[in-house]
Design a protein that fits this description.
Chain B: Pfam families: BPD_transp_1, BPD_transp_1_N. Chain B: GO terms for molecular function: dipeptide transmembrane transporter activity. Chain B: Its main location: membrane. Chain B: It is a multi-pass membrane protein. Chain B: This is Dipeptide transport system permease protein DppB. The complex is a heterodimer. Chain A is α/β, with parallel strands linked by helices. Chain A has two domains: about 15-100 and about 180-335, Rossmann fold, CATH 3.40.50.300; about 115-180, no CATH class. In chain A, about 35% of the residues lie in helices and about 20% in strands. Chain A is built from twelve helices and twelve strands. In chain A, the strands form two sheets. In chain A, strands 6-7-8-3-9-10-12-11 form an eight-stranded mixed sheet, with helices on both faces. A four-stranded antiparallel sheet of chain A has the order 2-1-4-5, with helices on one face. In chain A, helix 4 (about 120-130) runs parallel beside helix 7. Chain B has a domain at about 95-265: MetI-like fold. Helix content of chain B is about 80%, strand content about 0%. Chain B has 13 helices and no strands. Chain B has helices spanning about 1-30, 35-40, 45-55, 60-75, 85-120, 125-140, 145-160, 175-210, 210-220, 225-260, 265-275, 280-305, 310-315. In chain B, helix 9 (about 210-220) crosses helix 10 (about 225-260), helix 10 (about 225-260) packs antiparallel against helix 12 and helix 11 (about 265-275) packs antiparallel against helix 12 (about 280-305). Chain B is globular, with a radius of gyration of 24 Å. The chains are: A alpha/beta, B mainly alpha. At the A-B interface, helix 2, helix 4 and helix 7 of A face helix 9, helix 10 and helix 13 of B.
């Protein structure tokens, strides 16, 4: 039915980013450097990191949503459903967008077009990728709205975005993204702008839909609570590089990169004595102030002169890896002792 | 929606009254006595007295005003002091000419300005954008009269493609009528096209960076659809509002263009009436123009609400 849908190859990851680097035009340092991650059908990869570390940019690049005039894609070895994906091929990316790879965004309040009824906005996504008639597309929209838990979808269909609450709008966004049954959903901080109670509902909804359709999900977030809730794998990003990646329990229980350790300890705890929250001092360097070698070295408590050279990637088994001269952790602690 | 329009009309009434007072007093404050102008060289006191009586110029000013407004409401704007024609009839004759001119200028301005604005926003920073902006700036800076004269010289005198002046009523010969008015409409519309282009460009630039445009792209829509449907529909609100307001200005601005191309329109009527101190006509013209402006304002407001689902449900 959807001609652009790529048949998922069960063995291959849905999205396999083997190498991705890009820079803003006019800058001589890469904004994203050597990204590598993959996500399989039914799995959830959480990409975590501070604001400005390039989490969203990477996903927008994969979706082809960055203006080609603004960015220059360097290395790009990406496979989607087992097939190579050329990030410069706008036509192909467009046929995949909304059909087999979909994206939802942080701001449900502004992500829907205020001038059109939500039903039409969803139906439009159906018609863009199939020969569905307006009536069929409308039917699909109703079914999808029901699926994302919107009561009385036949009536809601005719409402405008301003008539819906933030949580409802995010549900509409999800309905719109999933209406063509994509193999991959990229969710860019989908709950950040919502109330805490609504956040949980939206996360549950995404998880339920994922269980039902078997789609692969990439969740971009800076909320470690969200990560603990839904991730199967985690990639920790810092200043455009993935500094540590691995299965969620390894990242939480046995973090190896100083930055990951810093992130973990900056989460407030309910148990134990109340104490000052640990922070990672400083801010993410900009492309102009990026240090040579390890990008975290300017803020790392363990930094040594050797950190001005590119750090090696160390593997710890089960797909757990970190980009640090001193990993594993024991080495680091010995040295600093 | 209907109640919104009614409310807006009610609000317009005091505005119109205020304008009528203003128009009336301005008239009285102006130097020069129309009766003296009418009475001719001899200034026979009897004739003057007769005229004063006839035009009720001896009544106290408030009475004169009440009389004038009372008649105006019934559609009687008085008689031209010069030609003895009813003012309303004069205006009724000339206004359609100018409305045709202004409408053609508007169509031209929108047809050029809006697509150019969209194009230059979408291709921001490219040669297209640069050229469009330079052309727009030229359109704004070239004075109407100069452009008109140059066009007459080139198109009418040298190439002999279009007539240099005159007017053919649309009802008599639509094709010929449009042909004659092509150059004047172009001249009158250039500055407007440039204004519209600049506004379209900036509205589109704002809208193109919005989240919902990104959503539209994320759905896999064609770039054409993203721009012309999702972006332009939202940029349209300020453009339509502005166009409605500018249409009123076009009618006022037609004065000069009509002089250049000797079109017997509203503008010519204004100029003649002012030079002849034809008070009744001037009063009528200003009043009709003011009401026209208010109506265009009203239309702009209605369009604004109609284009905006959020406001539409509230009214």
């Amino acid at each position: 039915m959807v001609e652009t849908l790529v048949e998922p190859d069960a063995a291959a990851p849905v999205l396999d980013v083997r190498d991705l680097s890009l820079r803003f035009r006019g800058f001589d340092r890469d904004l994203l450097s050597g990204l590598r991650y993959s996500v399989r059908s039914g799995e959830t990869l959480c990409i975590v990191g501070e604001s400005g570390c390039g989490k969203s940019v990477a996903s927008l690049a994969l979706m082809g949503l960055l203006p080609p005039t603004a960015v220059e894609i360097g290395a790009a070895d990406v496979r989607f459903c087992g097939e190579p994906l050329d990030l410069g091929d706008q036509a192909r990316l467009r046929s995949l967008r909304g059909a087999s790879m979909a994206m939802i965004f942080q701001e449900p309040m502004t992500s829907l077009n205020p001038a059109f009824r939500i039903g039409d906005q969803i139906a439009e996504a159906v018609m863009a990728h199939s020969g569905a008639t307006p009536a069929e597309a409308r039917e699909r929209a109703v079914a999808m709205l029901r699926k994302v838990g919107i009561p009385a979808p036949e009536e809601r269909l005719n409402e405008y975005p301003h008539q819906l609450s933030g949580g409802m709008r995010q549900r509409v966004m999800i309905a719109m993204a999933l209406v063509n049954d994509p193999a991959l959903l990229i969710a860019d901080e989908p709950t950040t702008a919502l109330d805490v109670t609504i956040q949980a509902q939206i996360l549950d909804l995404i998880r339920d839909l994922q269980a039902e359709t078997g789609m692969a999900t990439i969740m971009i977030t800076h909320d470690l609570g969200v990560v603990a809730e839904i991730a199967t794998d985690v990639a920790v990003m810092y200043a455009g590089t993935i500094v540590e990646a691995g299965p969620v329990e390894r990242i939480f229980n046995d973090p190896q990169h100083p930055y990951t350790i810093g992130l973990m300890s900056s989460v407030p705890r309910l148990s134990g004595p109340r104490q000052r929250l640990t922070t990672v001092p400083g801010t993410v360097p900009t492309p102009q102030t990026m240090p040579d070698g390890c990008r975290f070295s300017t803020r790392c408590p363990f930094a040594r002169p050797v950190c001005a050279t590119d750090p090696p990637e160390r593997e710890f088994g089960a797909g757990h890896r970190a980009l640090c001269h001193f990993a594993p952790l024991e080495t680091m602690l010995e040295r600093s002792a | 929606m209907l109640s919104f329009i009614l409310r807006r009309i009610l609000i317009a009434i005091p505005t119109i009254l205020l304008i009528s007072v203003f128009v009336f007093s301005l008239q009285k404050l102006l130097p020069g006595d129309p009766v003296l102008a009418m009475a001719g060289e001899e200034r026979d006191p009897e004739v003057i007295a007769f005229l004063r009586e006839k035009y009720r110029l001896n009544d106290p000013i408030p009475v004169q005003y009440a009389h004038w407004v009372g008649n105006a409401v019934r559609g009687d704007l008085g008689m031209s002091l010069r030609t003895n024609q009813p003012v309303l009839e004069l205006i009724g004759e000339k206004l359609p000419v100018t409305i045709q001119l202004a409408t053609m200028a508007m169509i031209f301005a929108m047809g050029i300005g809006i697509p150019a604005g969209i194009l230059s926003a979408v291709r921001k920073g490219t040669v297209t954008d640069y050229v469009a902006n330079v052309v727009a700036l030229s359109g704004l800076s070239i004075p109407n009269f100069w452009l008109g004269i140059m066009l007459i010289l080139l198109v009418s005198v040298k190439w002999q493609l279009l007539p240099a002046s005159g007017y053919v009523p649309f009802a008599d010969d639509p094709w010929r009528s449009v042909q004659v008015m092509l150059m004047p409409a172009f001249v009158l519309g250039t500055a407007l096209a440039a204004t519209l282009m600049r506004h379209t460009r900036s509205a589109m630039l704002t809208v193109l960076t919005s989240d919902y445009v990104r959503t539209a792209r994320a759905k896999g829509l064609s770039e054409r659809r993203v721009i012309l449907k999702h972006a332009f529909r939202n940029a349209l609100t300020p453009i339509v509002t502005l166009s409605a307001l500018l249409f009123g200005e076009l009618i006022a601005g037609a004065v000069l263009t009509e002089q250049i191309f000797t079109i017997p329109g509203f503008g010519k009527l204004v100029v003649d009436a002012v030079f002849n101190r034809d008070y009744a006509v001037v009063q009528g013209i200003v009043l009709v123009t003011a009401v026209g402006f208010i109506v265009m304002n009203l239309l702009a407001d209605v369009a604004y609400v109609l284009l905006n689902p959020r406001l539409r449900s509230q009214t």
